[in-house]
């Protein structure tokens, strides 16, 4: 156990208040039995439709937009379908623009993401909403466990996720898992399946982002012999194969619009039709979908159907980025090191309080997957490798990026990196995608997908 970890275990009977989040641990109780609450907040429409109406938060977040699925609905043409989200976190209240058409203006300043204070005025198109803290608090439901399936975590954010996953596992409801890459979405899907009554039935994974659009329909629903060129035999699709079990649709945000319509029908009617067949086959399959995108922003952009989002998001679980829960790093690192099965002597330098403390200070843009890869590299070299910008290669952050809020800057930097990386490899291999993808150790289909995203031609 690291020094930081020990400190958290020993704090007796305290209230920890961070921003809008409060954690209460009864005197002498062990970690795992705390309760948490967040400050309640109020949104008052001061201009626009339903002027004067007041909305009170029942949890830690609220989405605002013109679509009826929002918590606060502003039926006004200049307000996007999912315009923005207000959320209470460790560091206070924030608003985040969901790629709305007219943007979010907080107290006169256009923002992508911004902190809010009591009395802040949010302008969304022609509507204005006032944000205020209320004196009361909303209780957050936390799981008593700090481990679910292969996922571990002691943070409030992770235990709130565990509670939602446990509740979801007890039902057949469709689940939408959201979170940045490497936050544990695939593992969460497996954990829900394993904790459900379907655990002895198949768990089928379809990576919708890695399968070319023209093959995805047949992959999901199967096809009849002769349905298209190359369909030499009849093929059973993932939905039929998963009968009685669970299907995990990874990267659901990548599926093309025509197929979204077909998937919607399956969710509504619980039957599929193989490509090239006129017969409907009933399917008893639990659906769990995952995405690293915010599907609400995809709906705004017209790339994702709002009715499909509605059907998928029966239970929404957002896996937090690792940088939002550094307190989980000691337990996750310990689990990753233990499962690597290395000789305990080699693990010693990777278990010191100084090393763990450095891990906690890093931002981990690739989340737990990056942490795992880094620890694996350390194990190979048998030392704590450089981690931060100070002891690693120098990266200059241009002023155009450092002037932006972190999420926007990160998105642009990653986009730019991806584009240049692909370009360099394509040039090196004279536009031969298969060779470029092989050098990148990347699936060719994924390489093509990234090229399409960045408008690159071979
Ligand atoms: N809380 C956690 N505890 C332990 N291991 C974790 C945790 N979260 C993620 N991992 C590990 O990190 C790796 C990445 O997890 P996973 O593949 O589930 O992420 P993901 O969100 O599905 O990523 P992507 O969106 O890129 O597919 C896996 O090895 C997983 O076991």
TrEMBL record:
Residues 1-10 have a biased composition (Basic and acidic residues). InterPro entries: AAA+_ATPase, AAA_lid_NorR, FHA_dom, Homeodomain-like_sf, P-loop_NTPase, Sigma_54_int, Sigma_54_int_dom_ATP-bd_2, Sigma_54_int_dom_CS. Keywords: ATP-binding, DNA-binding, Nucleotide-binding, Transcription, Transcription regulation. Residues 62-111 form the FHA domain. Residues 151-380 form the Sigma-54 factor interaction domain. Pfam families: AAA_lid_14, Sigma54_activat, Yop-YscD_cpl. Residues 1-35 are annotated as: Disordered. Coiled coil: none annotated. This is Sigma 54-interacting transcriptional regulator.
């Amino acid at each position: 156990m690291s020094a930081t970890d020990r400190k958290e275990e020993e704090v007796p009977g305290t209230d920890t208040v961070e921003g809008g989040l409060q954690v209460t641990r009864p005197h002498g109780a062990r970690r795992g039995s705390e309760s948490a609450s967040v400050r309640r907040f109020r949104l008052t429409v001061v201009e626009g439709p339903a002027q004067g109406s007041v909305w009170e938060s029942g949890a830690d977040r609220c989405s605002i937009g013109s679509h009826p699925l929002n918590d606060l609905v502003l039926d006004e043409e200049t307000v996007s379908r999912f315009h923005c989200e207000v959320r209470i976190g460790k560091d206070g209240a924030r608003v985040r623009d969901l790629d709305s058409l007219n943007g979010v203006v907080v107290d006169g300043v256009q923002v992508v993401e911004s902190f809010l204070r009591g009395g802040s005025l949010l302008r969304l198109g022609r509507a204005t909403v006032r944000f205020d803290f209320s004196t009361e608090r909303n209780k957050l439901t936390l799981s008593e466990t700090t481990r679910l399936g292969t996922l571990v975590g002691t943070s409030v954010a992770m235990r709130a996720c565990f509670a939602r996953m446990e509740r979801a596992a007890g039902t057949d409801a469709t689940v939408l898992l959201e979170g940045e890459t490497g936050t544990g979405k695939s593992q969460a899907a497996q954990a829900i399946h394993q904790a459900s009554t379907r655990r002895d039935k198949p768990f089928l994974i379809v990576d919708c982002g890695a399968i070319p659009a023209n093959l995805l329909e047949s992959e999901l629903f199967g096809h009849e012999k002769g349905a298209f060129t190359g369909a030499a035999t009849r093929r059973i699709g993932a939905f039929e194969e998963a009968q009685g079990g669970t299907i995990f649709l990874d990267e659901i945000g990548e599926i093309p619009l025509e197929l979204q319509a077909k998937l919607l029908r399956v969710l509504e009617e619980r039957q599929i039709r193989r490509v090239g067949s006129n017969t409907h086959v009933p399917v008893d399959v639990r659906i769990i979908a995952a995405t690293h995108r915010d599907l609400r922003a995809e709906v705004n952009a017209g790339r994702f159907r709002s009715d499909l989002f509605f059907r998928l998001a029966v239970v929404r679980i957002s896996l937090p980025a690792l940088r939002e829960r550094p307190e989980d790093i000691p337990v996750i690192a310990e689990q990753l090191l233990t499962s690597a099965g290395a000789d305990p002597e080699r693990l010693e330098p990777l278990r010191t309080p100084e090393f763990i403390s450095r891990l906690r200070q890093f931002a981990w843009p690739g989340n737990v997957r990056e942490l795992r890869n880094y620890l694996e590299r350390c194990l190979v070299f048998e030392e704590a490798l450089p981690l931060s910008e100070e002891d690693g290669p120098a990266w200059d952050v241009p002023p155009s990026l450092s002037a932006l809020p972190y999420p926007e800057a990160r998105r642009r930097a990653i986009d730019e990196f991806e584009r240049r990386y692909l370009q360099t490899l394509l040039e090196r291999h004279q536009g031969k995608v298969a060779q470029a993808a092989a050098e990148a150790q990347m699936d060719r289909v994924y390489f093509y997908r990234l090229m399409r995203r960045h408008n690159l031609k071979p």
